[in-house]
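User: Modeling request: complex.
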Amino acid sequence: MRGWRDSIFAAAFFLFMAAFIIFILTLIISDIFYIDKKAVVAVITSRFIRHALWMSIWTSFTTTVIALFFAVPAGYVLSRFRFPGHALANSIVDLPIVFPPLVVGLTLLVFFSQTALGRWIQEDLGLEFVFQPKGIVLCQFVAAASLAIRSAKTAFDDVDRRHENVALTLGCTQWGSFCRICLPLAWNGIIAGGILTWARAFGLFGPLMIFVGSFRGRTEVLSTTIFLEQSVGNLEVALAIALLLIFVALIAITVIRLIGGSATVKL
Amino acid sequence: MIRTEQISFHIGVFALQGVSCEVPTGQYFVLLGPPGSGKTIFLECLCGLKKIDSGRVYIDGREVTTLEPRARNIGYVPQDYALFPHLSVEQNIAFGLRVHNFSHKGIMDRVTEIADLLEIRHLLSRRIEGLSGGEKQRVALARALVLQPKVLLLDEPVCALDEVTRQEVCAQLFRIQRQLGLTTIHVSHNLEEAFSVADRAAILHQGLLQQVGSLDELLRKPNSEFVARFMRCENIFCGEAVAQNAHTCDTKVKVGDIQLRLSGRYNGQVKFMIRPEDILVFRGSGYDVQNENLVPAGLERWRDCGSYVRIELNGPVNLVVHMTHAAFAELQAKHQPLDFARDRPDVIVVLRPENIHVLPGF
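Assistant: Request completed. Predicted assembly structure:
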């Protein structure tokens, strides 16, 4: 039976959670009250905004898939193997998380426009990123993939190595043990990393403005559209787009959570 | 049969140092040792989960030192069982069969057979979460046995279980091992476990195999003070040989103020032991305390240890004696009940030379 001290403890902790949620909801509701019907209609009917929405969705999901493709092996290596420079590699993986967003854009721009390797990729290989839709994915990947790798590493850390060892004695190869045991057990953590990656990619703004710009109907995504609209004084439209972005994000995160199981974010 | 030759492995500051032993086919071998002695690492070396620095491993005469774990045909049950939590009991047991691409019918037949053997058929559809410790242990054992391995390695298989379940599981392990004629290495730090299952045992300490033999040899003929103490012998003494009797082939050893007769010829410093259950204690008159190996002693304290009574005696040498409850009751009833607090009654202790074991290499 719970005593009054336990009840106070639970109530106090709930208070903090409730305060945060109420604060966030208040901000969103104040946005809703600020916008008018005209702004909503403008957002719904605008071909460019629909295009920006579609660009935001496909680039962020592509980025997430690519990031997870890197995160699973990279996270496993960081979790399971000890090698010279392990601590340094671990830190480098985390580096893009602490990069100021503008630095990501600037760094990419300098690499592709000022270095021989970057120019070779763009000009000789024909993989153009600067001011191109592909550049959006690259920008988002650099800014967000660390979150996926970090989550995958933590998820693999939580899988008891003895499970894999037993699988090896039961006839599995290292690959078989990874696929049959390690990956399913780490799945929730990997999905959580995917959610974080997608969220970061979906809302990314600063690096995109520098590396790919915001060309209507070409490289414009929702976050850059918001910036453009507010910079020309269309605050109601900017907020209506922001609400659209929030609404899509809410649906996407909920669906990913439901599909991916009880994904919990651990960093 | 599994045989190791001079296995060496190091990790950090710890090292297995040239461990050699042989477990014949069908034998239940218990590897004892305190925590941190290297027992689990040794098992992992046998499985191939750790790559050894040097040495060889043979299974049924075939060298498997460089083979991968999956090619060694070893059943391994790690500590805490490491059951796959995302699979059901049936899927856990069938895991190895599925990896080996058995047919569906073959899988079902084998799983049912092993589940019947271990009496866990009713658990097959259950999730791992929610099984009791004993049930988990049996599922892990079934998962290891279903592939019909040549050797079974059990790492502390019952350490997480309560006393009653532990005894039941040990009895079941022994029954199944005998039924299948399986060569088994069971790692433990618990002597009671060893007594309930072992045909033969060994003691590992700091990566070195201290002694291999029957439990009786480990108990009564330990080859070092560590083995003697690990086997719970507290009566270990140092003395000096003062006289040898060429006729009877024995030696008188001075310990403190008394002299004890030991079987065999010894010179100089001698370290010896006598097991607490091999000491006889008498009370009352009729014994000549000047006779050899009759030691007068005072009863210091006693403690009921369940299946025996532990008595501490002090005198020329301090002794610990284990007596049955019946023997202790008889000792009490001789004249009047013992009152340790009041009068510390004296007793006569008999240390028979044939029960005294001299520790080698001292």
